[in-house]
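Lecture notes, part 5. Sequence design as translation. It can be helpful to think of inverse folding as translation between two languages: the language of shapes and the language of residues. The source text, in structure tokens, appears below.
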């Protein structure tokens, strides 16, 4: 019998799925990932990390319970990471029902599939600081009450409580990682950091003149995705399942994040930034600031990458892509 550990990742083609696959492959895992069939190329992140042929892709969709059960059976996974989601907050007002189906009911489908096919497997739910929304404490930790401000936040709250409930009802090893914003060169272009770093690179190369943004006074606690996937793995190695906030403990405005990106290439946002009402949201999360104290104490996890390092890494990656 093989001693190779096997993991199943939903959302394997996303930012976190790619970094988590890389981490688990380095640790010697057999990595299986759910591939939700799309007409466009969704494997570019795995390709950029050079692991496209190492991840075993399984057809499936979070909204299809039978495909989740089959994936858990065929992969023989002992660790299941539910990272799949409609993860863009802005879209959740345009597609609230899809967001609820994928992010809320989809998580319940994975929990049910684990319960049916392998209740001993350790389960990770990709929960989010968006659940804090209209913040009820200056610094948010595992005990801070939730107040979601978007259909995305509402759907994720269902998934979070379903995870807690399956842990308490069925004694499943189900953990919820409440992760604050984390970014990387593999971040989707619709999210504000990558939108900024891509635009800064294009402006520097003379391919674009302006950068149009919405609420630049919003504050986020931004970290590096590569650091955050380690926290996910650590949660599933603990003797008992629990919930953890994963954050840097620092918060920065979108405006100041833009300054870092422009400064890196010797430009100023004042010459290029345009505020556009189109990018404001029906309800905003004004500020997020996480307290990672529990993750530090119990998991031994700490962020390693500063915001300055993160944003300059992203600008450099976008410059490389555009000049290739
Ligand atoms: P992402 O890049 O948007 O990736 C989302 C993944 O979900 C993609 O692989 C996507 O597949 C997949 N997916 C979407 N709908 C699906 C469906 N119906 N069935 C199966 N798979 C589906 O997101 P991320 O930044 O990696 O985030 C990973 C998870 O953490 C998400 O659940 C997100 O909500 C949560 N989270 C993220 C952050 C953050 O700051 N990044 C913070 C807190 C929590 P395609 O590639 O085919 O579209
Ligand atoms: O980059 P964002 O779109 O990320 P947001 O909404 O904070 O959500 C991300 O982090 C969550 C964790 O807290 C995840 F759960 C979620 O899946 C996702 O990964 O926007 C950040 C801030 C917002 O306040 C937004 O209003 O930037 C502000 N912003 C200003 N102008 C903009 C823009 N955001 C985007 N995407 N595009 C703009 O033009």
């Amino acid at each position: 019998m093989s001693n190779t550990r096997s993991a199943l990742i939903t959302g394997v083609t996303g930012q976190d799925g790619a970094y988590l696959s890389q981490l688990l492959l380095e640790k010697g895992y057999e990595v299986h990932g759910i591939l939700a069939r799309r007409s466009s190329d969704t494997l570019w992140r795995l390709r950029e990390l050079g692991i496209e042929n190492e991840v075993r892709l399984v057809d499936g969709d979070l909204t299809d319970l039978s495909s989740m059960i089959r994936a858990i059976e065929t992969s023989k996974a002992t660790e299941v990471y539910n990272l799949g989601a409609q993860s863009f907050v802005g879209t959740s007002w345009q597609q609230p029902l899809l967001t609820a189906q994928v992010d809320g009911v989809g998580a319940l489908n994975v929990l049910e599939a684990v319960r049916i096919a392998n209740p001993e497997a350790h389960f990770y739910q990709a929960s989010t600081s968006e659940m804090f929304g209209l913040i009820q404490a200056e610094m948010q930790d595992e005990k801070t009450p939730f107040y979601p401000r978007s259909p995305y936040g509402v759907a994720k709250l269902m998934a979070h409580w379903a995870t807690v409930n399956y842990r308490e009802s069925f004694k499943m090893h189900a953990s919820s990682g409440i992760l604050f914003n984390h970014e990387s060169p593999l971040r989707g272009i619709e999210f504000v950091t990558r939108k900024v770093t891509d635009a800064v690179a294009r402006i520097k190369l003379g391919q674009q003149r302006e950068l149009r943004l919405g609420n630049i006074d919003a504050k986020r606690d931004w970290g590096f995705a590569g650091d955050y996937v380690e926290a996910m793995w650590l949660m599933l190695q603990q003797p008992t399942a629990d919930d953890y906030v994963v954050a840097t403990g620092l918060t920065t405005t979108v405006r100041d994040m833009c300054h870092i990106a422009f400064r890196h290439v010797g430009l100023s946002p004042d010459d290029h930034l345009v505020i556009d009402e189109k990018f404001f949201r029906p309800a905003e999360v004004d500020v997020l600031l996480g307290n990672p104290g529990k993750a530090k104490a119990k998991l031994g996890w700490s962020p390693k990458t500063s915001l300055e390092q993160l944003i300059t890494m992203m600008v450099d990656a976008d410059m490389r892509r555009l000049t290739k």
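The translated text above is only one of many valid answers, since several sequences can fold into similar shapes. The CA atoms of residues 136 and 147 lie 8 Å apart.
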